[in-house]
Design goal:
There is one protein chain. 45% of the residues lie in helices and 15% in strands. It is an alpha/beta fold and 247 residues long. The protein has an eight-stranded parallel sheet. A two-stranded antiparallel ribbon has the order 6-7. Strand 9, helix 10 and strand 10 form a beta-alpha-beta unit. Helix 2 packs across helix 3, helix 3 runs parallel beside helix 4 and helix 9 packs parallel to helix 10. The chain is globular and about 45 Å long.
């Protein structure tokens, strides 16, 4: 199982020194990254990834609110094979009609992405799990409306914050899930309370095992009270040690 790092985790360091941050990511042992806002940084980011031997199989971009052609062109330039819309506020997840409209927009985006050889996905927060539509979570209702080629990136921490057992949720969503966000902590909205994988209440290894069609597990912190580079290093070490035990 390859592990990636969502670069939003390192957003402050990236703003100060993008090449240096990418170099540190590689030195910690990551071989893959998941960029965010990559249209704005494509040239500098692409050079840094190449220099450090890193790839970016997935990336986050606001497909439903910004120029899709620009996003897909930048993704293709960076070798990003899957572009994931990272965020749609809670008000979009409260009724069937709004969710149907969102699914239709994402299905259309996927058709445009296919012209660039880029796949499209969606990443959840808590509210897609807190809301219920026709007896299902809003995220599961939404999944049923997506064209077959679309994928989900399940943020397993926000799923727990939203009241769902992430292991059970991943089992229900099945093969649609190709990426997960791996994070840990107390399972609350206090992002600064997040901790390295294996140190909180999330059953991280069970979560990884539950995603049967997983392509990449993406380490992420929304925020962190300690040294963020130490935090991601601890998360990666925990995941790798578990792999070694199971090898």
């Amino acid at each position: 199982m390859p592990y990636s790092i969502q670069l939003y985790t390192l957003r402050n360091a990236m703003q100060e020194d993008l090449p240096g941050t990418i170099r540190r990511v590689a030195e910690i042992g990551f071989t893959q990254v998941e960029p965010y806002n990559f249209v704005a940084t494509a040239k500098e980011l692409g050079a840094a990834l190449k220099e450090n031997g890193l790839s970016a199989p997935s990336g986050h971009a606001p497909l439903l609110s910004q120029d899709q052609d620009e996003i897909f062109a930048a993704a293709k330039e960076l070798g990003i094979a899957t572009v994931i819309d990272p965020y749609l506020p809670a008000e979009h997840w409260q009724n069937a009609e709004d969710i149907q409209a969102t699914a239709a927009k994402l299905n259309a985006a996927a058709k445009k992405g296919a012209d660039y050889g880029v796949r499209v996905g969606y990443h959840n927060h808590a509210w897609e799990l807190e809301s219920s539509i026709e007896g299902k979570t809003a995220l599961e209702y939404f999944e049923g409306l997506l064209d077959p080629e679309l994928v989900l990136e399940v943020d397993t921490y926000w799923a727990a914050v939203g009241g769902q057992n992430p292991v059970d949720l991943l089992a229900r969503l099945g093969d649609r899930v190709k990426f997960i966000h791996i994070k840990d902590g107390p399972g609350t909205t206090d992002t600064k309370a997040q901790v390295p994988a294996g140190q909180g209440i999330i059953p991280v290894l069970d979560v990884v095992a539950a995603a049967k069609s997983l392509e990449v597990g993406v380490v992420e912190f929304d925020d962190y009270a300690g040294d963020i580079f130490e935090g991601i290093a601890q998360s990666l070490a925990f995941l790798h040690s578990a792999q070694d035990v199971n090898a």
